[in-house]
Write a structure and sequence with these properties.
- Belongs to the multicopper oxidase family.
- Its EC number is 1.10.3.2.
- GO terms for molecular function: copper ion binding; hydroquinone:oxygen oxidoreductase activity.
- This protein has 3 domains: about 120 residues, Immunoglobulin-like (Sandwich), CATH 2.60.40.420; about 180 residues, Cupredoxins -  blue copper proteins (Immunoglobulin-like, Sandwich), CATH 2.60.40; about 190 residues, Immunoglobulin-like (Sandwich), CATH 2.60.40.
- Helices cover about 10% and strands about 40% of the residues.
- The chain has 5 helices and 33 strands.
- The protein starts with a helix and ends in a 20-residue tail after the last strand.
- It is mainly beta.
- The strands form 7 sheets. The chain has a 6-stranded mixed beta sheet, with no helix packed on it. Strands 11, 13, 16, 18, 19 and 20 form a 6-stranded mixed beta sheet that branches. Strands 22-21-26-31-28-29 form a 6-stranded mixed beta sheet.
């Protein structure tokens, strides 16, 4: 009896250990060409596994994920696992020339990481030039086994990825723009799960349709994978309950309109009508625009279609009333600020908001556009037709090195980057007032070095140089807490008095308001080289990016792991 009891205890312990440790999930991503037709234009698109959008990556909290990426195309490529913390596994983060050299044609690389303390919706995408326009897909992190959501279990879960479609090759578009100094051509359509919808020419058959049943609850995993646009989203005649942002549970709130910036994810609960409504409802997304340049002023539409009760003598769905949603005005900055302000962490015992209450290091970074002078004996098409568009953080436009910063840091290679990134603007001015006469930026590969576990406060200040504009900033390797935001210039004496240090939202991507500022805090508890950049790719290409280098901590689990043997070479 005692022996069998001991055996039973052993099996229970083994089961518990398996649950706690998680399992290992293997994926193979073949980056390959695939012909896709949208808007009557057939184009050779860069994809993973010939899918557009790409395949789902599903794991549980605590699982180890191993993805072998094989490059079958002519372009260099890397994959970034957007929002995954990558604790001590910076080599698997993916931004080209920051944590790795790119994977060259006919080469492969194995990304190997464990999902620790995270559950919810994230996503993966290419992280070199503009390749992510078609190389992207969802990451769905389920709670640990026997764990539940902090809300009622939905009847079904659906992923909705918002994206952009270009009729011509996006790589040619950004290449030409960087050469001429002009703003790049904009996209030809927005998409819902790869489909533009019926409001575009030659597109009615390419419409995403979500079939639902009355009286059910659907968890919609919304992801903005668009290249250069923040997007409003709404479903006609329906409200949704926001329950998560960037794979962090929120205090639930109800809304009929959402704003999602590129890089962000938002999970919402959709409760369908109790009975068949005799109508078809459109879901729509269109851009939130604050800048002065040209933009894709179009709307992508999908269909929310109720299933008919089987016993019904139903009308054909073609005869049903079609109801359209009302989206905010295209430049609804006040709506944007109010909507962002509704997000609050759950902040309870199980899901605490561990925001730094005291701060070791304070940083004040301006973000915005600027110019580079036109090279001698050439003509440029940027501002005043005499310069090139640029973008910067604290007036430093970041130049990518030719070998990865993380390699240079780990192996002590000099001359790749400098550690003199300015902690505040070198020349203070009225950031949101009239533009200074000199709009030129400095160019360099500069980083900020942080000691392990430093508590950081970073204020990101928009500038009105070449026009105030909203900038969705993404920090790799970390979540951060949004402790405050406002319009105008940040006031270091008054504004901190209003900071939320109780239940601030925790995210990996946050918008700096147009003509305003956002304050974030985080503990630098993950050693490595971590990219921070605007998630509007045109701004990233222009240099609105920088790198944090976090040194190793004293403990064994506080050190960057050695590089893998198959790390790509430049």
């Amino acid at each position: 009896m005692a022996a069998s009891h001991m055996l039973f205890c052993f099996w229970v312990l083994l089961l518990f250990m398996n649950n706690a440790a998680g399992e290992t999930r293997h994926y193979k991503f073949n980056v390959e060409y695939h012909n896709v037709t949208r808007l009557c234009h057939t184009r050779t698109v860069l994809t993973v596994n010939r899918k557009f959008p790409g395949p789902r990556l599903v794991a549980r909290e605590g699982d180890r994920v191993i993805v072998k990426v094989v490059n079958h195309i002519a372009n260099n490529v890397t994959i970034h696992w957007h929002g995954v913390r990558q604790l001590t596994t910076g080599w698997s983060d993916g931004p080209s020339y920051i944590t790795q050299c790119p994977i060259q044609t006919n080469q492969s690389y194995i990304y190997n990481f464990t999902i620790t303390g995270q559950r919810g919706t994230l996503w993966w995408h290419a992280h070199i030039s503009w390749l992510r326009v078609s190389i992207y897909g969802p990451i769905i992190i389920l709670p640990k086994r026997n764990e539940s959501y902090p809300f009622a279990k939905p009847d079904k879960e659906v992923t909705i990825m918002l994206g952009e479609w270009f009729n011509s090759d996006p790589e040619a578009i950004i290449s030409q723009a960087l050469q001429t100094g002009a703003g790049p051509n904009v996209s030809d359509a927005f998409t819902i799960n790869g489909y533009p919808g019926p409001l575009y020419n030659c597109s009615s058959k390419d419409t995403y349709k979500l079939k639902v049943k009355p009286g059910k609850t659907y968890l919609l995993r919304l992801i903005n994978a668009a290249l250069n646009d923040e997007l409003f989203f709404s479903i006609a005649n329906h409200t949704v309950t926001v329950v998560e942002g960037d794979a962090v549970y929120t205090k639930p709130f109800v809304t009929d309109k959402l704003l999602i910036t590129p890089g962000q994810t938002t999970n919402v609960l959709l409760k369908t009508k109790p009975e068949f409504p005799n109508a078809t409802f459109l879901m729509a997304a269109r851009p939130y625009v604050t800048g002065q340049g040209t933009f894709d002023n179009s709307t992508t539409v999908g269909i929310l279609e109720y299933e008919h009760p089987s016993h019904h003598n139903h009308k054909s769905s073609k005869n049903l009333t079609i109801i359209q949603p009302v989206l905010p005005p295209i430049n609804a900055t006040v709506f944007a600020a109010n909507f962002t302000g509704k997000f609050r962490s759950l902040g309870n015992a199980k899901y605490p908001a561990n925001v730094p209450k005291t701060v070791d290091k304070k940083f004040y970074f301006t973000v915005g556009l600027g110019t580079n002078p036109c090279p001698k004996n050439t003509t440029c098409q940027g501002p005043n037709n005499s310069s090139k568009f640029a973008a910067s953080v604290n007036n430093v436009s970041f130049q990518l090195p030719t070998i990865a910063i993380l390699q240079a840091h780990y192996f002590g290679q000099n001359g790749v980057y400098t550690t003199d990134f300015p902690t505040q603007p070198l020349i203070p001015f009225n950031y949101t007032g009239s533009s200074p006469n000199n709009t030129n930026v400095m160019n360099g590969t500069r980083a900020v070095v942080l000691l392990f576990n430093t508590s950081v406060e970073l204020v990101l200040q928009d500038t009105s140089i070449l026009g105030a504009e909203s900038h969705p900033l993404h920090l790799h390797g970390y979540n951060f807490f949004i402790v405050g935001q406002g319009f105008g210039n940040y006031d270091p004496n008054k504004d901190p008095l209003k900071f939320n240090l109780v239940d601030p939202m925790e995210r990996n991507t946050a918008s700096v308001p147009a003509g305003g500022w956002v304050a974030i805090r985080f503990f630098a508890d993950n050693p490595g080289a971590w990219f921070m950049h605007c998630h509007l790719d045109v701004h990233t290409s222009w240099g609105l990016r920088m790198t944090w280098i976090v040194l190793d901590g004293p403990g064994p689990n506080q050190k960057l792991q050695p590089p893998p043997s198959d790390l790509p070479q430049c």
